[in-house]
Amino acid sequence: MSQFVGALDQGTSSTRFVIFDRAGRLIALDQREHRQIYPQAGWVEHDPLEILERSNQVIQGAMARAGIVAADLAAIGISNQRETTVIWDRATGQPIHNAIVWQDTRTVAIVAELAASGGADRFRASSGLPLATYFSGPKIRWILDQVAGARQRAEAGDLLFGTIDSWLIWQLTGGPNGGVHVTDVTNASRTLLMDLRTLDWNPDVVAALDLPPGLLPRIASSSEVYGIATGALAGVPISGNLGDQQAALFGQTCFTAGEAKNTYGTGCFMLVNTGALAVPSANGLLTTVAYRLGGQPPVYALEGSIAVAGALVRWLRDNLGLISSSDEIEALARSVDDNGGVYFVPAFSGLFAPYWRSEARGVIVGLTGFATRGHIARAALEATAWQTREVLDAMNRDSGMALASLKVDGGMVTDELLMQFQADVLGVPVVRPEVIQTTALGAAYAAGLAVGFWPTIDDLRANWRQDREWAPGLDPSAREAAYHWWRKAVGRTFDWLEP
């Protein structure tokens, strides 16, 4: 009998394949980065074929490390960077353009055109989302408008659209030779095109964006058998699919309304489970599908999306040379006692939640002759914590509940200085699980549930284990004084780009 479940976790900066046992313990992992392509300021692309190649490499690498073969896997799940948009030829499997990444801002004119009739909340009642460059729908429209012949080929039925999950599932199940064109409710809910209540494509929004409906994949649940893999995973069911942040919520076993998690990756994303209710936000959050298991009713969430978190550390490494590797940031930040009055607002792609200001751009403020590399490093880490504080405040107002503690995961949670500062500025305990690869774990859990590897979600709850907790230690008056200066710094980013 198969003893393991695998998860292909395709993120913004890297791809990993992770193998878990029945207790939810990590058995093996392989990870590889892919290129970040910046054709011009504000544009971010990935090569879909490079992502596919990295996926195949890490699948084989993790299986070799674990010493297993495909038959040892009961199922695999997919988690993926959301909103990133791929269009490819159904006959050849070749993309017609690089993937347009979620951070990309090239669709600002399309968004403005759509908002001219009905405003930024034109589609919010249906999709739970404001009009923004973040989401997939305008990216599809841009590719069809800008790539020669693309619209005609799409209308003829020759092209397929997908977020990265759809692209990978199609390729892993045969590609041009019978590949399954599917997405799940969590990824579909990030396109702007899905109705949160019907869980189907909204024909009015599809028409408003002038998209041929035949481009779009079938919307399935987050936990069901979509197809059978070929290649190195030949014969293994692909039976779990969640956008990365919903996968992390699932991996953290936040199955009860009011439970929340925050993932610290390229960006930073806080989700709170709102149960059977799709709660509309009045405070700049997104209403989204958290997950759907088979034919059960969907579970919804409120989300606060922050565009730049770990990406800021990489920027300090790659663009400024302030550090030579990302793990050096904590030691450099600890070389000073505080931020020295320096605040860093990384609005590289505008500001996401709770502001949704696409015209904002990043600033470093409070600089004096006293400031050092250490102060800038500390301000960069603190930026993630302050942005999370703003999202938590909005979440408390929308949900009417005060969060008692925050479960955290993602690559940055190994930074103990950041985690302590996060607890300090939130005023609630911050809890790190034993397995911090919760995005991959959530995809594995969804896949395993679909094939009976885990019988119920209670089995998943029993697997959750705490590693460490940080209690707030900052005086509330000092916390609020520092928060005042952060909010003042954020205000300096507004209206940087002019119409």
First-residue to last-residue Cα separation: 62 Å
Largest sheet: 7 strands, mixed
* pLDDT averaged over residues: 94
Specify the helix fraction band.
Answer: 25-40%
Runs with pLDDT <50, length 5+?
none
Strand order of the largest sheet: 15-16-14-13-19-20-21
Q: Identify the overall geometry.
A: globular
Radius of gyration, taken over Cα atoms and rounded to an integer in Å = 21 Å
| SS class | alpha/beta
Percent strand: 15-25%
Description:
The chain is of the alpha/beta class. Helices cover 33% and strands 22% of the residues. It is built from 16 helices and 21 strands. The chain has helices at residues 48-66, 108-115, 124-127, 136-146, 150-155, 164-172, 185-188, 203-208, 244-251, 310-318, 329-333, 373-399, 416-426, 438-450, 457-463, 476-491, and strands at 4-10, 14-20, 26-33, 45-46, 73-80, 85-89, 99-100, 159-163, 182-184, 218-220, 223-228, 237-243, 260-264, 268-275, 286-291, 299-306, 343-345, 363-365, 406-409, 430-433, 466-470. The strands form 6 sheets. It has a 7-stranded mixed sheet with strand order 15-16-14-13-19-20-21. A 6-stranded mixed sheet has the order 3-2-1-5-12-11, sandwiched between helices. The radius of gyration is 21 Å and the shape is globular.
